[in-house]
Write a structure and sequence with these properties.
It is built from twelve helices and five strands. It is α/β, with parallel strands linked by helices. It is elongated.
């Protein structure tokens, strides 16, 4: 197009098209497309619309081509010297982000991009701009998320590992007539848990809360082999809820010689009511207690996380009965899915 770029001979246009076909670099390819479209008679506005870019970009590329020819399409950053975001820098950034800023002498407990730039300057000898740090964080797939609050296990590392190893050995050597399950309880609140959700610009979604909270409680057991779930519901989180679950397990696995229950140290698991019930069952149920504050070792905790994500978080149920209906539907779906997966695995 005259005035925007010089008038090109047919052979020059063919050379540009051929180099466009061979070009593998995305940025350079887009600049070739701009020139090929302009040379083909499209206006800057039509070219920008066709390529999905700003019209100012089209004019900038055309100016570089007009002043420098085809060389003007090359990436000017090639003259910037050695690449700063190399593998060594990114590896150091990855290791740094995984740690706490206070370990590096900062008083602030959370990272900012400016702090990362300064922290990495000394060990790498490289100084980058804050916007470059944003690109580096994207390259290592870092994200801004909510940390998970945890309580440290009061046991020594050796004692903790010994208990976990004992449980793992029990599962590996589980007799054919025995069953093992992970057990835990979960609270269901009518007042919804508030969590992250996608929203469009200028929008903040609202979650209507009933105000007067109502609670229900579940005690569940997930089979270590099949993944199937057994659960009971209760109005209170007391020993009877746990005893009801154990009774349900005995009925569900009536063929089992021993049911091994892996669980945490919640007080209802040790109560006198629980102990009396255990004695009446004559050793058919054996409790295996995890080390204190080790929720990651209890597989059913992940199921409860999914329950909150799929049902209780940001829910819009007006009554606890409506909410519990959704909870039961979720648990039935998960049990059916686990059963089908297990059947395919053993088929």
């Amino acid at each position: 197009m005259d005035g925007i770029i010089p008038k090109l001979r047919w052979i020059d246009k063919q050379r540009l098209v051929e180099r466009l076909r061979r070009c593998e670099e995305a940025g350079l390819r887009s600049r070739y497309l701009v020139i090929v479209n302009l040379a083909g008679g499209r206006s800057p506005t039509e070219t920008a619309k066709a390529l999905g870019m700003a019209k100012t970009t089209v004019y900038r590329v055309a100016k570089r081509f007009r002043e420098q020819g085809e060389v003007g399409l090359l990436d000017r950053r090639e003259d910037n010297g050695e690449r700063k975001l190399d593998e060594r820098y990114l590896a150091k950034l990855y290791a740094t982000v995984r740690r706490n800023p206070q370990e590096f002498g900062w008083r602030r407990p959370t990272w900012t991009r400016e702090m990362l730039v300064k922290t990495l300057r000394k060990p790498t000898g490289v100084t980058v701009h804050v916007t470059t740090m944003s690109r580096a964080l994207k390259m290592i797939r870092a994200r801004r998320g909510r940390p998970r609050p945890v309580v440290g296990c009061p046991w020594s590392k050796r004692a903790k590992n010994q208990r976990l190893s004992t449980i793992r050995r029990m599962l590996e050597a589980l007799p054919r007539r025995d069953v093992a399950v992970y057990v835990d309880e979960v609270d269901i609140h009518l007042n919804p848990k508030i969590g992250l959700d996608w929203m469009v610009r200028g929008q903040q979604k609202e979650v209507l809360t009933p105000g007067q909270n109502v609670k229900r409680y579940l005690a569940g057991a997930i089979n270590t082999v099949t993944g199937e779930l057994v659960w009971v519901e209760g109005m209170q989180k007391r020993s009877q809820l746990f005893v009801d679950l154990l009774g349900r397990l005995l009925r569900t696995y009536s063929h089992a010689k021993v049911i091994h229950v892996i669980l945490d140290n919640f007080r209802i698991h040790h109560s006198r009511i629980t102990q009396m019930a255990m004695e009446s069952w004559g050793g058919r149920i054996v409790l295996h207690f995890l080390p204190p504050y080790c929720p990651n070792e209890n597989r059913i905790e992940r199921l409860w996380e999914d329950l909150h994500a799929d049902v209780t978080r940001n829910h819009r149920c007006a009554s606890i009965e409506e909410l519990m209906k959704e909870v039961r539907a979720f648990l039935h779906r998960r049990t059916a899915h686990a059963r089908s997966v297990h059947q395919r695995r053993v088929a």
